[in-house]
Design brief:
single chain, alpha+beta, four-stranded antiparallel beta sheet, 7 helices, about 30% helix, DUF1642, DUF1642 domain-containing protein
């Protein structure tokens, strides 16, 4: 029976990949459990070879402590701009020096005094280096006021099958739960900016 000593781990400690590799390397033990058959001068000679073995618990505990940077969450337009910069071969310094090249990114990254917001700069840098997740856009329904509506009749904005926002007549309130009537700010303002004032955020 082969014995070994498990290295205790602290769940709170985090390590990088290189540290994890070193832990696993230090935990290797030699065991002789693989049969080897050698053909020599017409004779069959049985034997064993030593192989490296690392206890599963050591490997699992070590992997569990590898530090993986949490991805930042950025708006869709920021993600698209980052990908465009990468496609153009930009480096991070150029990216951070040209945040106002894109109007929407500039409005997002600068405050009212035209000063860069440090937290936004950090977010872009982390997104560039560690990857990102795209922020779930808020959705809205838009019911257009009409004093001449009859009964439960309402006129609302909806996305049709051609990806166009149009005005549609519906009855009741069940339409609010249907995805076709739940629109993003960008979708609403594209052709119906005047109707933005009547928006209602989807819960």
């Amino acid at each position: 029976m082969i014995g070994w000593t498990l290295i205790p781990f602290s769940r709170s400690k985090q390590m990088n990949k290189q540290e994890a590799i070193e832990i696993i390397e230090q935990s290797k033990i030699k065991i002789a459990n693989r049969e080897r058959v050698i053909f020599k001068a017409g004779e069959i000679i049985g034997g064993c070879v030593q192989v490296d073995y690392v206890p599963l618990e050591v490997v699992v505990n070590t992997i569990d402590q590898i530090h993986e940077p949490q991805k930042v969450v950025v708006p869709k337009f920021v993600a698209e701009w980052i990908e465009g910069c990468k496609h153009s071969g930009w480096h991070l310094q150029k990216v951070l020096s040209n945040l106002d090249d894109d109007e929407k990114v500039g409005d997002w990254a600068y405050d009212k005094n035209d000063d860069l917001i440090p937290e936004k700069v950090d977010m872009i840098a982390r997104a560039w280096l560690d990857g990102y997740e795209i922020e779930q856009e808020k959705l809205y329904t838009v019911e257009l006021p009409n004093p001449n509506n009859i009964g439960t009749e309402v006129h609302i904005l909806m996305m049709n099958g051609f990806k166009q926002v149009v005005i549609k007549k519906e009855l009741g309130n069940d339409w609010k739960k249907k995805k076709g009537f739940q629109l993003t700010e960008e979708e609403i303002k594209k052709d119906f900016e005047w109707a933005w004032q009547f928006r209602e955020e989807v819960d």
